[in-house]
Amino acid sequence: MQIPVTVCDDSMLSRKNLIKALPPGWLADITECKNGLEALEACRAGRAEVLFLDLTMPIMDGLEVLERLRGEDLNTVVIVVSADFQPEVQQRVQSLGALTFIRKPITAEQLAEALRLAGLL
Amino acid sequence: MSSLYEREVLRRDALQEVLNISMGQAADTLACLIDERVHLSIPRLHDVEASRLEAFGSSLIRKPCGMLTRQSFGGFFRGEVLACFERGSKPVLLAPGLGFPVAAVERNPSELILELTNLLASACLKGVAEQLACALRFGPPSVLATASTVTDFLGRQSLIWHKALFLEISFSVDSLSLVIDLLICVPEQESRALWQGVDRMLGQEDV
């Protein structure tokens, strides 16, 4: 069965690179979003068992998505993928419920490790 | 959409992402020194004509106004970074973190501001060079004006370019009331090399 996965990043290149780096053979039904608001809607629509979430985005940033998700009873595993890797930012996303943090540019190994951590690989 | 248009969209998106990653590195460098969270803007690209600086000013996220510094760079492509330390920013609060005597910075903040220019500009551009697999070298930073907007300053100069690509990024530290806008200016004749680097990174040199 395919796992509903949402990839949210305002950069098209980043989204493509992430999707390309997903483990081969891992069955995912992928939704792409360009900002946090779209991602939130994807989560609410059940299209994000896993959400790969950038932080610095227009309209709604990743931190706000995490804050809003926390207030809703949604069964979404959030993996933050960001270039902003300051220790305070990493602590903040984890305190807001993200499973883990991957620093950009991502590698296939980091992605696989995060999915293993989520029990999805 | 034509494939040429699609290619242009992809290139610009890629360069913005390259900048985003580079800014993250620069912000982390600064955050480690001052032990404060540094906020990042979303990087933006502007195609600027020297004869239409006013339009450029209107398209910026803010109209940076304050102490202006510059730092030139060369190598795979050439250009300069214009940094604006927004009026009202308090660089003196950064003195302890950057190892500057507070009293000296209060008397004359230029040296600290030049240090910050060098730190942020070189960290950003090193990140760009690394991702585009090219080499860049940097000149020393200098103060251009103690209080000006970037576009007013540019308007008073004899510019060596008619068209240029400007990369707009900004850093802020709320707790220190600090806002720094960086505009990386790459004249049109130099931007070809930059785009060539982007194409190489995307693996579409022959497109």
Protein model, in words:
- The complex is a heterodimer of chains A (121) and B (207).
- In chain A, helix 2 runs parallel beside helix 3 (62-70).
- The mean pLDDT of chain A is 96.
- In chain A, helix 3 links the parallel strand 3 and strand 4 (77-82).
- Chain A is α/β, with parallel strands linked by helices.
- Helix content of chain A is 39%, strand content 21%.
- Chain A has 5 helices and 5 strands; from the N terminus they run E-H-E-H-E-H-E-H-E-H.
- Chain A has one domain: Rossmann fold (3-Layer(aba) Sandwich), CATH 3.40.50.
- Chain B has 207 residues and is an alpha+beta fold.
- Chain B has one domain: CheC-like (Chemotaxis protein chec, 3-Layer(aba) Sandwich), CATH 3.40.1550.10.
- Chain B is built from 7 helices and 8 strands, in the order H-E-E-H-E-E-H-H-H-E-E-H-E-E-H.
- Chain B has helices spanning 3-34, 53-59, 95-98, 102-107, 110-131, 150-155, 188-202; strands at residues 39-40, 44-49, 65-75, 79-86, 136-138, 142-149, 163-173, 178-187.
- In chain B, strands 1, 2, 3, 4, 5, 6, 7 and 8 form an 8-stranded antiparallel sheet that branches.
- In chain B, a hairpin with a 3-residue loop joins strand 3 and strand 4.
- In chain B, helix 1 packs across helix 5.
- The longest helix of chain B has 32 residues, at 3-34.
- Chain B is globular, with a radius of gyration of 17 Å.
- Chain B starts with a helix and ends in a 5-residue tail after the last helix.
- The chains are: A alpha/beta (121), B alpha+beta (207).
- Chain A binds chain B through residues 10-14, 56-58, 82-89, 103-105, and chain B through 9-10, 13-14, 16-17, 20-25, 27-28, 31, 37-38, 40-42, 131, 202.
